[in-house]
Amino acid sequence: MPNNQTKGIYRHISRVSQKFGEIRFITEGLYDTLQVSALSRDTDTGIQYLYYASTRPSKPGERHIYKVLITSTNTKTTPECLTCDLGDKCLHNSAYFSHNAKYYVLECNGPLNPKIELRRTDDNGLVVTLHNNDRLSDMLSNKLLPKIEKMVVPINGNNLSVMLYMPPGFRKDEIVKYPLLIQVF
C-alpha cells in the first residue's frame, strides 16, 4: 500500500483492522517493499515474523530480504535485514521459504557471481551452499567486463541513482565518443 513519507510515496506492507478499518503500516521509511515472502507463527509462543523483499534507503538498486516481528499490540518493531551483511557480492537477492518458514533458499543474484544457499530463519545461519557457480566465475575471469560506476545525479531537487557501464579499458581523460544507452526503471 502506498505510504506518504517526507520525501515521496513508497510502497509498504500494511495491516488493516477488519473491525475498525484502521490501517497500520508494518513497514515504513524511504524505501519500497517489493514482495511479501512468508509469514511464520511459533505455535508455542505465538510469535509471528513477516519476511519480505525490499530496497534500502538511498540504495534503490539493491534488493534485500528482511524479517520483522508482528505484534498484536501494534507496537512498531525494527526490521532485521537478513542479507545486508553478505557484502558487495550479494546486493540483489530473492528468497523462497519452507512451508513453516524455518528455512529459506536464498538466491544471491549478484552483481557478481550468483549463488544459491539454504539458510535457517532463526539465526540466518548457512545450512548448505546449493550452487556457487564456480564454473561461471572461471569463465568470466578470462573475459573483459565493463567497469561499473555508481553515482547520484541531482535533477529538479531529486537525487537519481545512476549506474554507468563503461567499456573495458575506458579512460575518462581520453576524447573518444561512445554510444549511450539509457534505461529507466
TrEMBL record:
Keyword Protease attributed: yes
Species: Oppiella nova
PANTHER family for the chain: DIPEPTIDYL PEPTIDASE 10, ISOFORM B, PROTEASE FAMILY S9B,C DIPEPTIDYL-PEPTIDASE IV-RELATED
Domain Dipeptidylpeptidase IV N-terminal: 8-114
GO molecular function, one term: serine-type peptidase activity
Listed GO biological process terms: proteolysis
One Pfam family of this chain: DPPIV_N
Taxonomic lineage of the native organism: Eukaryota, Metazoa, Ecdysozoa, Arthropoda, Chelicerata
InterPro entries, per the entry: Peptidase_S9B_N (IPR002469), Serine_Prot_S9B/DPPIV (IPR050278)
Sorted UniProt keywords: Aminopeptidase, Glycoprotein, Hydrolase, Protease, Serine protease
Name by which UniProt lists this protein: Dipeptidylpeptidase IV N-terminal domain-containing protein
Gene3D superfamilies documented for this protein: Dipeptidylpeptidase IV, N-terminal domain
Keyword Hydrolase listed: yes
Gene Ontology CC terms: plasma membrane
